[in-house]
Design the sequence.
């Protein structure tokens, strides 16, 4: 099933000049880029994004980090995009992330683990609505899709 999901390349990914390398991994896998923007997040917005973690001991740290510098918000589309992106990102704790994943290859600290990704199709829908206006998400075909996606009915 074709899904859309949100990825944030967090401020550490921007500061470490890894945005292009991270986006390339998703594109090379066959996921379609349907939304992209560089954003400086304020505290109010960060608190809305991390509302599910309000009251947890790490909430303040999450808010402080995501507001510490610009980040890149990305909307990706593809079959099972939520699960594929989460697998590609690797475990939240980089020491537990498999080699070949973004965090396994590029991160060493849990607090600075480079990327955020939606954890379910329902979360993806809510997060995409928070980060992107409908007109900022683009629908288009790609010639390579016939080489990436199975034909309908196959």
Sequence:
């Amino acid at each position: 099933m074709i899904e859309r999901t949100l990825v944030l390349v967090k401020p550490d990914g921007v500061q470490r000049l890894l945005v292009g390398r991270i986006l390339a991994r998703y594109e090379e896998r066959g996921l379609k880029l349907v939304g992209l923007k560089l954003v400086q997040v304020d505290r109010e917005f960060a608190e809305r994004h991390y509302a599910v973690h309000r009251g947890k001991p790490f909430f303040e740290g999450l808010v402080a980090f995501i507001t510490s510098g610009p980040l890149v918000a990305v909307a990706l589309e593809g079959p099972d995009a939520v699960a594929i992106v989460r697998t590609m990102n690797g475990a939240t704790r980089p020491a537990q992330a498999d080699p070949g994943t973004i965090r396994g290859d590029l991160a060493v600290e849990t607090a600075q683990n480079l990327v955020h990704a939606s954890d379910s199709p329902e979360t993806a829908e809510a997060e995409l609505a928070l980060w992107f206006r409908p007109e900022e998400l683009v629908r288009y075909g790609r010639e390579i899709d016939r080489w990436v996606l199975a034909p309908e009915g196959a």
